[in-house]
Amino acid sequence: MRVFFSPRQLAHAPASEFSRGEMIAFRECPVRAQSILAALAAAGFPAPEQPDDPGLAPVLAIHDGEYVDFLRTAWTRWRAGGATVAAYPTAWPVPGIGERRPDTVEGLLGWYIFDSGTPIVAETWDAVKAGADTAHAGALAVATGARSAFALCRPPGHHAARALAGGYCYLNNAAIAAQALRDQGAGRVAILDVDYHHGNGTQEIFYERGDVLFVSLHADPAFGYPYYTGYGDQSGRGAGEGTTLNLPLAAGTTEAEWLAALDHGLGRLGDFAADAVVVSLGVDTWEGDPLSHFKVSARAFPALGARLAGLGLPTLFVMEGGYATAELGKNVVGVLSGFEDA
Ligand code: SP5
Ligand code: ZN
Q1: Contact between residue 205 and residue 62 where contact means Cβ atoms under 8 Å apart
Q2: Does any ligand 1 atom lie closer than 6 A to the CB of residue 291?
Q3: CB 229 within 8 Å of CB 221
Q4: Does the beta carbon of 119 sit less than 6 angstroms from any atom of ligand 1?
Q5: Among the atoms of ligand 1, which is closest to the Cα of residue 282?
Q6: Could you list the pLDDT tens digit for every one of the 342 residues in the chain?
Q7: Which atom of ligand 1 is nearest to the CA of 196?
Q8: Cβ contacts of residue 5 below 8 Å, gap of 6+?
């Protein structure tokens, strides 16, 4: 398995996030990537390859140009207003307040960032672009003959939509990779999103497309973040009707229940006859994760890897969530080793 990582991703390190009325340490921290790198090395995976810079074209194949301009310039504009720490939105254009895009950076923060957990610091754009480059390099590897690759992306991506950041995500790395695979000649690409949270951004990006299947297992929005998407009756629209499959799961979901839902999702993947698979790999499903309300043990991870190998398709793993930093690397390597050893 080829491994891709850019150390530029480590520089994005906001100090804090808002949780239950107080500021807590930012959970999506650089140590996450270091935990994964250490576990990969200990397990004998090859040293990570640094991605090439393909410019902005792969990003702009997925994201809105004005949104990307906002991400690139927000910190400078925020600094120009005299602020020195991180840029957070403090107001949002929720239904009822209007639909006019403002020109102020304060207004644009709420326009383009849908939650309070996705701040912008000086290093954010460079790290986020390096993450997209990492996903893109992994896609090129798989498109040119690698059986599998792991793109160690950070910050994660699956909550980012065409013109929205949120949930620690700014650019949708998995979507950028899926589009790159299409552009390299894969006729049909399947995205399997196993992060604990619904990949609202990936769903939105491909909702009306029939060439990219999106299958997601996640905490039911009836109780879990991101609260507004991920329902089982969201199945796609237009040319994409039937190519979105949401499998929302209850609080307390066990490993056996999670694997049963996985098998259901993999059945749909098989029917779709994809030419390549992108796995949005979050391991925040783990019962010990600070964000998880599942009861999924670490044994689920090698089982996931083995089942994915059983598809027999070129497979790109793109890192998403997982916040139990001490065990994160071990859990990720559990999936990748399960795939390799199958
Ligand atoms: C990529 C990814 O995993 N993003 C997740 C963002 C979640 N942010 C908000 C989480 C709110 C959790 N509420 C507290 C649960 C404590 N057990
Ligand atoms: Zn997550």
Answers
A1: yes
A2: yes
A3: yes
A4: no
A5: 3
A6: 999 999 999 999 999 999 999 999 999 999 999 999 999 999 999 999 999 999 999 999 999 999 999 999 999 999 998 888 999 999 999 999 989 999 999 999 999 999 999 999 999 999 999 999 999 999 999 999 999 999 999 999 999 999 999 999 999 999 999 999 999 999 999 999 999 999 999 999 999 999 999 999 999 999 999 999 999 999 999 999 999 999 999 999 999 999 999 999 999 999 999 999 999 999 999 999 999 999 999 999 999 999 999 999 999 999 999 999 999 999 999 999 999 999
A7: 3
A8: 33, 37, 48, 49, 50, 134, 151, 152
Query: How far away, in angstroms, is 44 Cα from ligand 1 center?
Result: 31
255 in contact with ligand 1, CB cutoff 6 A: no
Q: Which of 252, 249, 310 is nearest to 277 (CA)?
A: 310
CB 142 within 8 A of CB 186: no
| Whether residue 159 lies in the annotated active site | yes
pTM over 0.85: yes
